[in-house]
Amino acid sequence: MLRRRPGGRNRARAAALVTARPSLLAGEDVPPEPHQKRSLEKRARLKAAGLALFGEKGYEGASIEEIARRAGLAVGGFYQHFHSKRQLLLALMDEMLDNMSRLQLHPQPGGDIRAGLRDLLAHAFSGDLRYLGAYRAWREAILSDAVLARKQEAIHAWTTARVTAVFQFLHQLPGARPEVDIPALARPMDSFLWNLMAQVPGMRQGELARWIDTATHLIYHALFADPKRGQTHLSRPGRKRRIGPSPADSP
User: Fold this and answer.
1) Which pTM was predicted?
2) Contact, 121 vs 216, CB < 8 A?
């Protein structure tokens, strides 16, 4: 996994991918979001019902009739907001990506690098867990829908670029290994994190925290040489800084 550090052109392309999240609703004939409070509440209830039923039964197992009934609406009420179950799933996944895009990846004052990296991973998962039902249904739906499969490729390109951006920042810090192939490290780690999210529903209490510890350990030791005993890697000499969510991002 040894290669020169990426040049300016590659960094600019990565930065563009980081800021421009995929819009899953682009090109989809989704009814516009309502403005009235009562209609917004109905739409929110449909989304909540969809999340729950997708998590319980998967994409094929959850029907529009069940979703409407769980939301306390008639089937006609469902079609006022979404033309199909597929559109509801797209809206939920798009909402998940929007929340992910708001996660700050910039350094904030605080503890050491390893602790900050773990905080970032834990914070990212805490926001994504609400959408586990949608992600379960999404993984099922992309197997038989070529358009959704292409959207999935765009999602992975975007999240890999975000992981790459974090790794590139870490790679500039004191103690970083000088010749790490950042893209080659970011791609499998991005896939690992998505696969970990898919396994969460079957995990026992505390198991996710142990997996986050494992991911932190893998990333840290891939990027940094072991410090000498009694030393801690700091992001800048003389100042303790960390990678992690800012106070405004805390749940």
Assistant:
1) 0.81
2) yes
Q: For residues 27 and 147, is the Cβ–Cβ distance under 8 A?
A: no
**Domain end marker among 46, 63, 83:** 83
Q: Supply the CATH number for residue 44's domain.
A: 1.10.10.60
CA distances from 238 to 51, 112, 231 (A): 47, 12, 12
Instruction: Say how many domains are in the chain.
Output: 2
Q: Are residues 63 and 113 in the same domain?
A: no
The per-residue pLDDT string of the chain (251 residues; one tens digit each, 9 = 90 and over) reads 223 334 444 455 445 445 689 999 998 988 888 889 999 999 999 999 999 999 999 999 999 999 999 999 999 999 999 999 999 999 999 999 999 998 877 655 556 888 888 988 998 888 788 899 999 999 999 999 999 999 999 999 999 999 999 999 889 888 899 889 999 999 999 999 999 999 998 888 899 999 999 999 999 999 998 766 555 555 444 444 444 444 344 33
124 with 192, same domain: the answer is yes
The residues, ordered by sequence, that sit 6+ positions from 126 with a Cβ below 8 Å of its Cβ are 251
